[in-house]
Automatic annotation (TrEMBL):
A Pfam family it matches: Sugar_transport
Protein name stated in the entry: GRP family sugar transporter
Cellular localization per UniProt: Cell membrane
PANTHER family associated with the record: TRANSMEMBRANE PROTEIN 144
Transmembrane keyword on record: yes
Organism: Candidatus Companilactobacillus pullicola
Amino acid sequence: MNIVLMLLPAIAWGILPLAVARVNGKPINQILGTAIGTLIVSIVVFLIMRPTISITSFILAALAGGFWIIGQLGQYNAYRSIGVSQTMPISTGLQLIGTAFIGVLIFGEWASANAKIFGIIGILLLIVGVSLTAKKDNKTPGNNQTRTVVMLVLTTIGFLVYNSIPRAMTSSGLAIFLPESVGMVIAVLLYIIFTRQPQVLKEKASWQSLLAGFIFSIAAITYILSVHDNGVNSAFVVSQLSVVLSTVGGMVFLHESKTRHELLLTIIGLILIVGGAIVTTIF
């Protein structure tokens, strides 16, 4: 079991929100830079590995990449609204809950009685964990906490589609990395056109966000390699530690403040979310 390879996705995905939040730009700048940075890395990987992929798989993977933009744009907007340390536990928990339901309803997972019992327990842990991390002590009249959480729930659909499409494909993870990134860039450009924001293509913040794309690529590639070497369950569970890193990083490096009560609830919520991820995956 390659421990370093197993930890790299968690570290990179944990650092990603912090790197994005440090860029002095709008979410549209950040998502554009992330998509282009990912495309650059995917082209390099494609030229080195030369994976084969059918036209149908290419289109499906590109579609998955387009849906990823929906989910990631929701996250980036939430960073500005409620902060990284609150966004990441909520977003991660919602993704885990949604992925578990899709696994059962579409892919026939949790076939045995024991799997169903542990699966339900895991989902309950995730729901309680998300609820605790979303808790705020002081709610002012202008607070947009509820609106942001609703937005995260809706945009999480993008992440769920992004994660589900490859599960129905036979192509390898590295083979679909390039078409996914192509779909990401196309989706971002369409969003720019429909929202009439062509100026972001020239703004400095957009190109500073290329670093986010490089970090995301490191996480995605090392996760694919970790799944190959360590197995899906081990690789997935360890990757969820990224939520701990990003949450703590938001408080330490981005100076996002929490009351003592909120901090306690966040710590308990993180433990429940990671625990829920383990229960729904291992058992």
